[in-house]
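Structure ticket #2291
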Amino acid sequence: MYMYKRFDAKNWAKWKCYPGALTLLIPRISIMILSILALSLTINILLIGTTPNDKPIKNGIRKGCIKFWVKLTCNFHCIFGFWAYCTYEFIDWDYEEYLGKQIKTKRQNLTSTIVCNHIGFLEIYNLLITPLFPSFCAKSELK
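Resolution: structure written out below.
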């Protein structure tokens, strides 16, 4: 019954955490806001000459620049906002053991599905940094 009980809780003081939290919180928020403003300004400059009614941007220099700046901003936020570095790993998995040998897939047209329940904000950054550059779909409750 007492295996996981903390007996030193009476010595804890919430106010002792405030000075450290406040000295780190203000620069972190400032850096995050400035980087988001820089990203939005950069994207607006890259999208000069387009309107919201235009077709989606085709692969090219504009789209490549936007992807680069989004990934750079996500890495910047992870490092300076969460003190974490996000990496990804591509695993080429053979499903013949589970699906059988009759199912053949073309290696050139691989499709991926990423399913997450958005536990935290860092998860979204990880998804944006992956080479898949996925789209997002909101839950049905958010209609």
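Closing remark: The two ends are 46 Å apart (CA to CA).
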